[in-house]
Amino acid sequence: MRHPPQEVEAKFLLTDVAVAGQLATAPTLAANSLAGGVTVDTADTYYDTADFRLLRQGWGLRIRRQQDRLLATLKAQRLERGAALYARTEIEETLSPDATITARADWPVALTAALDELVKPETPLTPICHIQQRRVKRLVHPPADGDAADGAPFSELSIDAVSVATDDSGPVLARFHELEVELLDGGDEAELVTLAAAIAATLPVTPSQTSKLERALQLLASHPLAKPENWQGIHPEMHMAEACRLIWREQLTVMLLNEAGVRHGDDPEYVHDMRVAIRRARAAAKLYGDYFRPKTIRRIRKGLQRTARALGAVRDLDVAILRLERFERQPSRSADLRATLTQWRTQRSAAHAQLQAWLSSRRYERFLADWNAFCTTPGAGVRDFAPDSGQAPTPIQVRHVMPSTILNRFEEVRAFEMLFETDEALSTEMLHQLRIACKYLRYNLEFVRSLLGTRADALIEDLRRLQDDLGDLNDAVVSKRMLAGDPQAPLEPGQMRYLRVQEKTIDKLRRKAGADFAHFVAPTNRQRLALAIARI
Fold this sequence. Notes:
Layout: E1 6-14, H1 17-25, E2 28-29, E3 32-34, E4 38-48, H2 53-56, E5 59-66, E6 69-76, E7 86-95, H3 109-116, E8 126-141, E9 155-165, E10 174-183, H4 189-202, E11 205-208, H5 212-221, H6 240-264, H7 269-288, H8 294-328, H9 338-359, H10 362-375, H11 398-414, H12 417-420, H13 428-447, H14 449-452, H15 455-484, H16 493-520, H17 523-533
Helix pairs in contact: 5-6, 6-7, 6-10, 7-8, 8-9, 8-10, 8-15, 11-13, 13-15, 15-16, 15-17
């Protein structure tokens, strides 16, 4: 792909639908003049392979029907987080009206050449989502200068009403509204930055760095299979196996949307986010896996475990490197730790290479394809809990099982109360066990957060604070262990100073964790928990 074109835009989610109608007719926006609106209806189908090869490499393939035109667009995912504008590569070509996804050899050369670098020509492509969109487009002119007329337009404003389905024959499952301002050829990017900042400051919008494809996939992932529009998340009457299947779909989608950043991005948070998704998926398997026949999810468990190990090796080094870099930037604690940093970065590169090899392996691709098929097949692998004649039913619905499941996890956390009440300080190994117990409780709560009401928010926040303390303590323990390395090799003076800092950090966090633990298990939170689970 040589010098492909780019689109530069700012994107926002509209949180007040009425604003969409107002923007369609308003004469100005943040002192800029708006030209008359043009309404365009489009139908977009996105395609990928069974193992999501395009998405995992940071690309999306869209086939758009717009009146009598058929357009094929290959778009790159944005990997840089935090910037005001959304810039990405885009290759778009017009197709003949009778073009099909299976006859890609007949498509324009520029598009097929780029696509063939990502996916072999013979690899089948199937729909992964369908988006219908009504777009109102308006040109944006800079403010008039004195008596002079408005200047040439520098951007295009789009007000989009979007509906999402699994394919072009399926029902609408979710809707959202979005606002985009895209830089025109020859436009001044600084003017677009100013306009985007004004929109964020004055309109009821949420800045977004998520493409429509990514948002559509997230919405579909949280939509229970075969349920009507806007039926999002876990519901009380769901079978526990189907609740687990929905959780897996959500976490699989998070993994897929972060993999390109893990592969090609510089931001370590991609590895973190993908690892968290794996952890949540494995937690769901541990908590609710008994509602499936063991053989049917054995390969899923193994694939999750293998991926977790590869991600964990990189993430542990990322955290250790970031902690050491922060320490080195403090003048009062200057220490020559460049050799240690170099060593850890070398280890990180090696761990990342092993992660890349796993993500590119046929085994991983088969794992993703099989897991996705399992996640999108209602009833697959579910154990038979039907009672024999005259026997009482087995609890299998969320409303019957989840309250006691949450309480049991709370019991496991609160049991550490006996250890905190002694005069002996808890070992870091025991605090790690508490961290694991907190993790499972928190995941249990967050999986059904929408069912628990607002009382659960403060409860989860207190649990998050405790878990963060324990996580930071564990990071210090890992850094200390990595720094010690070979017990036969003496440490340099700078390494010794950093080692002592980690020991002090562990002691400080041990005390803080004790206070946060006492707060979390106090009567106020016990009451919150009881009232929250009573809502399920």
